[in-house]
């Protein structure tokens, strides 16, 4: 993943797939946390699901906006995974861990 800068807005477009096929996320609870290299929680992402039809099946967004602005991200190699819980039977699936490098801003 390309680095972002401290103070940048972070929004990640995602698609949930089962066996490589985009899968409706209507019946799922989706959570994701961003942690630093010391495993300290930096933020809980806000999850925004797209309307689940046709070309938007499985699509959702991980966002740092919400009722409370997210704190600035620290300069670090942050890590995250996404947890999907099927509400009907509590089946839990998690994504691979991915890494987000955060760099200092040059222009302030």
Compact summary:
This protein is mostly beta strands.
Short descriptors:
three-stranded antiparallel beta sheet, Immunoglobulin-like, 108 residues, elongated, six-stranded mixed beta sheet, mainly beta, 0% helix
How are the secondary structure elements laid out?
Blueprint: E1 4-5, E2 11-15, E3 17-18, E4 21-22, E5 28-35, E6 41-44, E7 46-49, E8 59-63, E9 76-86, E10 91-94, E11 98-103
Parallel strand pairs: 1-11
Antiparallel strand pairs: 2-8, 3-4, 5-6, 5-9, 7-8, 9-10, 9-11
Q: How would you describe this structure to a colleague?
A:
With 108 residues, this protein is mainly beta. It has one domain (4-103): Immunoglobulin-like (Sandwich). It is 0% helix and 49% strand. The protein contains no helices and eleven strands. Strands 1, 5, 6, 9, 10 and 11 form a six-stranded mixed β-sheet that branches. Strands 2-8-7 form a three-stranded antiparallel β-sheet, with no helix packed on it. A two-stranded antiparallel sheet has the order 3-4. It is elongated, with a radius of gyration of 15 Å. The mean pLDDT is 92.
| Averaged pLDDT | 92
User: Helix tally?
Assistant: 0
Our count of domains comes out at 1
Strand content: over 45%
Q: Please give the CATH architecture.
A: Sandwich
The radius of gyration computed from the alpha-carbon positions, rounded to a whole number of angstroms, is: 15 Å
> How many distinct beta strands?
11
How would a crystallographer describe the biggest sheet?
6 strands, mixed
Element pattern in H and E: EEEEEEEEEEE
Which fold name corresponds to the CATH topology?
Immunoglobulin-like
Shape: elongated
């Amino acid at each position: 993943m390309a680095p972002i800068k401290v103070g940048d807005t972070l929004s990640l477009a995602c698609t949930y797939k089962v066996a490589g096929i985009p899968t409706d996320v209507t019946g799922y609870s989706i959570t994701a946390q961003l942690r630093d290299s010391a495993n300290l929680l930096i933020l809980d992402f806000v999850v925004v699901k797209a309307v689940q039809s046709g070309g938007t099946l499985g699509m959702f967004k991980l966002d740092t906006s919400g009722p409370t602005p997210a704190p600035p991200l620290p300069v670090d190699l942050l890590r995250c995974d996404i947890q999907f819980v099927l509400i009907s039977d509590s089946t839990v699936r998690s994504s691979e861990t991915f890494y987000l490098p955060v760099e200092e801003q040059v222009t302030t």
